[in-house]
Design goal:
Length: about 130
């Protein structure tokens, strides 16, 4: 190294006499690594997956409920003609939208009852599976 040489600068490979190899090509290729992109300022993004919380589930349910409510309002506004309802000994007249909504709520209630019965059944099975007796 001579005076004025940068000590951090890569040097060309030298032969046993300190000169370049006979064919003029360097024997070792020095590759520069890319500079890091981290500036060190601010929070760093995490590669870990984001956990779903009860609050995020509540917001999702709220958005879905609002969208369903908007669709129901449009449905009711477009179906205002009256229909006749006959059920066993009951007879009456109501708007078509109201009749269909009552039928949908009745169907949903049946599904909820069946789901609750199944959950109770599974909990009992799990409780009996964990009993030591």
């Amino acid at each position: 190294m001579t005076v004025g040489d940068d000590p951090g600068a890569p040097s060309a490979p030298r032969g046993s006499t300190g000169e370049l190899p006979v064919d003029g090509r360097p024997t070792d290729v020095v590759t520069a690594e890319p500079a890091p992109t981290d500036t060190g300022v601010g929070p760093q993004p995490s590669s870990a997956p984001v956990d779903h919380t009860r609050i995020s589930a509540s917001w999702t349910a709220l958005v879905a409920a609002v969208l369903v409510f908007i669709v129901l309002i449009i449905f009711i506004a477009q179906n205002t003609q009256r229909s006749t309802v006959n059920f066993l000994v009951f007879h009456g007249h109501a708007p078509t939208a109201v009749i269909l909504l009552i039928a949908a709520v009745g169907g949903a209630a049946i599904v909820v009852i069946a789901g609750v019965a199944r959950i109770i059944q599974l909990r009992r099975m799990a409780r009996h599976a964990n009993d030591p007796t």
